[in-house]
Amino acid sequence: MNLAPALASLLVLCAGIMLAAAPHIPRLPSWVSALALAAVVWRAWAAWRGEPMPRRWLLYVLVIFGVAGVLVTHRTLFGRDAGVTMLVLFLALKLLETRTQRDAIIVTFLCYFLALTSFFYSQSIQVAGLMLVTVLVLTAALIGFNAPGRPPLAYFRTAGVLLAQGLPVMLLLFLFFPRVQGPLWGMPTDAYAGMTGLSDSMTPGAISSLSQSDAIAFRVHFDDEPPHKKFLYWRGPVFWDFDGHSWVRGNLPLPRQAEFVPDGPPLTYTVTVEPHNRRWLFAIDLPSLVPPNANVTADYELRSRVPVRTRTRYAMSSFLTYRATGGDSDEALQAALRLPTGFNPKATALARQWARESNNPQEILVRGIEFFRHAGLGYTLMPPPLGRNSVDDFLFGTKRGFCEHFSSAFAYMMRAAGVPTRVVTGYQGGEVNPVDGYLVVRQADAHAWTEVWLGERGWVRVDPTAAAVPLRVESGLAAAVPAEEPLPFLVRPDLTWLRALRFNWEALANYWNQWVLGYNPERQRGLFNRLGMPEANWQAMAQVLFWTVGAVVAAFAFWLLRRARPGDAAQAAWIKFCAKLARRGTLRSPSEGPQAFRARAVRLHPAAARSIDAITALYIDLRYGPEPDRGGVARLRALVRELRI
After folding, report:
1. What are the sequence ranges of the domains in the chain?
2. Is 626's pLDDT higher than 50?
3. Residue 447 designated active-site
4. Active site residue 403
5. DSSP secondary structure, 12-45, as one string
6. Residue of 403, 405, 436, 578 marked catalytic
7. What per-residue confidence (pLDDT) applies to 478?
8. How far apart are CA 155 and CA 139, in angstroms?
9. Does the pLDDT value for residue 276 go beyond 80?
């Protein structure tokens, strides 16, 4: 079939291609986006004006140069990003050779697959909504190519009906199809690049860059009232080694047991962590519960056994007051005192002066806190660059920094004064969404603090940022930074209307994450438990799925039969009428129309002429009339039943 007469269907297909490719445009190389747009415009223009299609030799040249361009751009032809780029490129070139109905259908099905690839990057509710619209448009195009004589609006009406009819089966498949842990496909390694979150090292400026992001790090639902913000220290990676510039975990062998003495009842809550491609999980200091497929290190770091590459939900409990006694071996305490030589002479001299003038680590700690409190240090999202002696430059030079500057400088001085100290990174604070009650912790809440060893008291948390800038912990990031500094758009406190809109949207997204994307094997087993099948295996699930889908299909088929067109029911009554006359010797020929048969039947049966005329006229009206009357079917049946010959 030549596509020139089916211009409307081709334009609908072009719209579907644009919708399927739209989510990928920010990720595609600019030359691929330009080539795809040019191909769509060229094909639509050729169909509109009746222009010839490009020569095949030109398409071959474009394929060769396109593949070479993908190889140069991505350094490979495999992987998620390169694969999607190749798919968009080949889809655009295939569109330029659509000359038959078969070609158009192939392009449509390629678009279905391109729409699916959007979920390789995001499964958010907005992406799902866009893909639903895309499937509607592509299905309308497919209908148009198979029924070219219909008006374009009829394509969309039929496509909408088809999708609506498939919704019950889709819901049953979602609920009862046996779930597996993790995705059904294996994602290439480049699928996890560019995820936002904390790093496995801490360098001045690293965490402050996260403060510019309002992306959600994780959500928390407390079983009771959330604690005060000053207790919301979400523990992440712990760093022991300092090379003069960066803090890293080090290779310190620690015991596997995390020892602590709780003081008071535990706080219970549920955490939903966004994927960040690292192994650490987050909990309030101090975690007292280990989620499945995770462990707690001796320095109380909660770690997953595999990188967190999908949204992860786990139940937690923590003690807000405790005595952390683990990690007190001589080797660990010596590691918590190590410092590189030849760095920060001013800070080193001051710290050693504190050690000489103090009787115990507690007095040194008090002097250190007082120094940070009265040193005139300022909190900023745009810290100035530091030189080789980063601690001296910060404390006695710029005096402006982010939390990692405060914690790094404080840990350095405590170690120089002989007090074992380590750096802890994570998040501090969070904001309760009044719509759904979840506490939302963003990347902008990233924070760093220290822990010092005080003998019988164990490891004691000390937040030098809170000592110097109390507003950071008491009121959050927005209250701590100077008024003239930029904040992430959704963290700004002055946009009340925007905050209300954000709360509602994030609550909706959270419901989607918890009940749709979070429908995992555990939740499916819980559903089967409520249905009276506590030991349901995949065979039982398949049986439930088979019978429920079969029941829905049977019910839908029965409903369609009940809603049969009046013309079909009238045809059945007409066949009974013809059978009555056939029994009296008047057999209708297959080629004989209703009017011709009526005239012959009236001649042969003049006594029943009035009934024959009434039956024929009503049948013609019901069968061929513009607006069939459903009540007329009952009258026709009655007339046929009452006919006496």
Report:
1. 4-150, 201-491, 566-642
2. yes
3. yes
4. yes
5. HHHHHHHHHHGGGTTTS-HHHHHHHHHHHHHHHH
6. 403
7. 59
8. 8
9. yes
